[in-house]
Sequence to fold (167 residues):
Amino acid sequence: MDITKKKILKIILIVILIIIILLLSWLFLGGKTFSKYKKDINASSSTEIAKPILNVEGASDIKIDGIEDTIYNFSVKNYNGLDVSEVDMNYYIEIVNNSKADLEFILTKNGQPINLNNNKTDLISSSSLNRQSDDYQLKIKYHNNPAIVEDIDGNVQVRVEAVQATK
Fold:
């Protein structure tokens, strides 16, 4: 045998040996696993919806006589009896004028004036951390003198709308 054939035979043997080593290492080290892991977790949970509370207290009617300014007092609370709201709330107050009268509305919260845009406040926050009571006073001024009875017919409503605060 000549030298070139011997070299080729050695190279072929080395390649075959490398292939056998790779196959054996794949069989023993990778490809298959002989262990199994299993864990069961028994769990149960119950959910409850948080109770939002926003309580508005005040007289149900606003009487406008056209002679003197009308004062309407009401309060907005985040509690009802012993129950306190479990979530923070945002609310706004809107004064709805369904009468034909030329009325001016002045709203104060705890004695401080509140800005009204189109008879509506900006959002007001109510925390769930402790009992909170906001006292409001709505002053209604009638601008026609003498009073026109047809103008005063109708009603004025104080509407409080609330949404849950997002964090």
